[in-house]
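Fresh eyes needed here. Kindly weigh in on this sequence plus structure tokens:
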Amino acid sequence: MEKDLNSDITYLKGVGSKRAETLRRLGIFTVADMLSYYPRTYVDMSSTVLISEIEDGQPAAVRATLTTDVSARRAGSGGKLSVYSFMASDGKDTMKITLFNRKYDAEKLERGKEYVFYGKGEAIGFFKTIKNPVIEPSDSAAIFPVYPLTANISQKILRSCVRSALDSCLDGIKETLPEYILEKYSLPTLKEAYKNIHFPSDISMAENARRRFVEEELITFILGLSVLKRKNRKRVSIPLDSDVDMSVFGAALPYELTNAQKRVIDECIRDMKRPFAMTRLVQGDVGSGKTAVAAALIYYAKMCGRQSALMAPTEVLAVQHYHGLSPLFEKLGIKVALLTGSASASEKKRIKESVESGDTDVLIGTHAIIQKDVFFDKLSLVIVDEQHRFGVNQRNLLTQKGENPHTLIMSATPIPRTMALILYGDLDVSVIDELPAGRQKVSSFVVNTQSHEKMYSFLREEVLKGRQAYVVCPLIEENDESETASVVEFSQQLAEKYLRYINIAYLHGKMPAKEKDDVLKRFASGEISVLVSTTVIEVGINVPNATVMIIENAEKFGLSQLHQLRGRVGRGSKKSWCFLVTDMQGQTLERLENFCKTNDGFEISRQDLELRGPGDLFGARQHGLTGLKLASLADMRSLTDAQNIAAEITSQKDWYTLPEYSGIAEAVVRLFGRTTVI
């Protein structure tokens, strides 16, 4: 029967070439795809209400008998709309039913026969009506699945195709989880789950079936990552086990490292001393000091006679790292170079020769450092900043520059530890869970555009005290289709209206690199008081004198992105503020107001995952994520259960060779596009 599951969709009864073409637009190519095309919701026609209980604007299922014949009329421009209407009674009250362009359904209805009508009710006083409802004979009313659709296909056709797939292949479905796990976690068998997620006899059975598939998706994902981690731990690397006095590094810093930073540095050095490549994620909230940890490890590698590379996602951030670390590295005798795409050909040639000869100890740059013509002499440490902005392949290209170098990945997007262990399951995880002394809590407020004058007057007062500020806009150029002002135009408006005689500059990603660098230098030195920018300043920019962050059109940003932007202020000892400007109401306003109530990046990230899903944080590039159809990475209960189940499976030596795990091993292979688990 496995052959049947992998058969083309045309294998199913009632699916010809034309219908198959439509189904393929939905991503359904095989019988297995059909079974895995899960409903997005259900119409419960088994639970009915009385006509008197119909609420305006609310969906309802009503059991009622036709008391009149169906009348037909034409409406709309040129009479193109066919309108069918009739009355129905539940024995106590009467309601009106209206159908639009449904001649086939209208002609099947019989006066005096009982039906169940499901749709959005309208209630005007005692008058009740349902327009264009789903209609089923009362003796066949049940719970019906509702699927995502495309053109030229209806719910009835999809249900028919799914039922055909179940009828022809249900007996051949192979169980993927062993019986002891099903019993321990009260999960239905795979056959029961497929049957009940599509055609449940009650909603609780549908929910239980969905839970089974959610758990299985997460278990498969976690097991796959555990395979990658096992492979990583077998990657032989050059151990860096020299006796290095790290107090020299600490003494060169203008501040004291936090205990959390010291712990993470020790964890990394312990890894780097082993003959296997370190693959460690360091995550921490905004301003927790990840860059200092990276600098410590670069120093350690230098003292062991090895080179390092630090790759940042944007030129602005790469330049910021270079300027921020250069004075420290100069004190420590570490030679550093910066390589970006905008460097001149002669400059690139000089830097590449210096790196290849070993004269440069650490190369900082953007994607430019993973080009084929960049060679290192003794690369042993690779640091990738803002992991979620890079694909796994880009990270691998950098590690290929050395002999399985030790890899440190930094992320300023804090996520709950359990989730981090799962999402980055191929890495070891370190968390910097302590902020440096003196970091200020940023006071945050949501304001509307009517508060512009008052808000910018406050900003002006801060500037006159010698402070600096950021103003963030979502777009770079004026767009006729958008009401959002561009960075360039908005900075001009501020200069003319609210901030006259204040030194304002703007920054966006399309500016030439040298111009961006010049603006950042002048802002860091205090020459520029207000920087109007896009999210190019989201990460890495460190100006302790900046105390005000204003984010225009705040509703256009995710919560985690807002948190990163807010993290540009409050970096010094001075009190700081963040203003979110929006005219939106309802849930959007509530979301932003909740954001203002906490400075905890882990909590904000959890909310962002619930609202927006993982794509915004990690992108489809993070391997395996695109295979999750039902699972939500914000569902901590399911994540925890799945992690426990995966741990039980992997606790058994060579689990993937055991017969009871053959099904889940095959699922891992399919999800990760591999030919074998090992």
Q: What stands out?
A: The first helix runs from residue 2 to 5. The chain is about 40% helix and 20% strand.
